[in-house]
Every structure is written in structure tokens, then in C-alpha cells.
Write a structure and sequence with these properties.
The chain has 118 residues and is an alpha+beta fold. Helix content is 13%, strand content 25%. It has 2 helices and 7 strands; from the N terminus they run βααββββββ. Strand 3 and strand 4 form a beta hairpin.
């Protein structure tokens, strides 16, 4: 399947992945809390503090994909919304319905920078 030229708007699938991930922010389950089990104690990690997803959701309609991963793995769907040299941090780490990792990154100013689906 041919790739769309860059920059380009988000695909419907990319928006859905982002919405799925951002929906975890108010639950505290966005980085494993409430879902991950400590291997030594067997205890479930407590939820992380809730985060308001609205500032991130507001960005979805204007996000532009400026780069994509070229690793060649057919299951990899990683795209960048900022230049790759931008310093970013994991906001959400979860999984897709088909078992792939779903990771959303933001910069220090709260702008979405990357969607990683591997």
C-alpha cells in the first residue's frame, strides 16, 4: 500500500489509537497503575494520579504527521507530529486490541509528539 506524502493529517486509525490511549488519563491506568502486577509481591500497582485528557484531545484535529518509522516491520505504525530531535516523554503506555504496544509521547509543553504502535 503506498504511503501518503508528508506532512499529512492523522488517519482515522491513528485518531482512534490516540483516543483509546488518552481515555486512560483520568483513570490513572495510563502508565500501568491499576493494571500492572509487581513480579516479586504479586500486588497490583496502584493507579497513577488522574490527568485531564482535554488538552491533548483538543490537539487531535490539528495534528499533522511529519515523519514515520522506516524500520520495515509490517506491524510497526510509529508516526511523529514534531521533528524527531524534539525531546519527548511517555504520557501513555498501554496496548491495542490486537496486543501491540501503544505509546503516546508529549513534549515538556504538553504537545503530542509521537504515536508508537509496535
Amino acid at each position: 500500500m503506498p504511503q501518503s506524502p508528508l506532512p499529512r493529517p492523522l488517519t482515522d486509525q491513528e485518531k482512534e489509537w490516540l483516543k483509546q490511549a488518552l481515555a486512560l488519563l483520568p483513570t490513572g491506568e495510563y502508565f500501568g497503575g491499576g493494571r500492572w502486577v509487581d513480579a516479586l509481591t504479586g500486588e497490583v500497582a496502584p493507579p497513577d494520579p488522574p490527568i485531564d485528557p482535554e488538552p491533548y484531545l483538543k490537539q487531535l484535529d490539528s495534528l499533522m504527521v511529519v515523519g514515520r518509522c522506516q524500520c520495515g516491520d509490517p506491524r510497526c505504525h510509529t508516526v511523529w507530529f514534531q521533528p524527531q530531535r524534539c525531546r519527548s516523554y511517555v504520557l501513555v503506555h498501554t496496548s491495542t486490541g490486537d496486543g501491540r504496544e501503544l505509546v503516546v509521547f508529549v513534549d515538556s509543553e504538553g504537545r503530542l509528539t509521537e504515536l508508537e504502535v509496535i
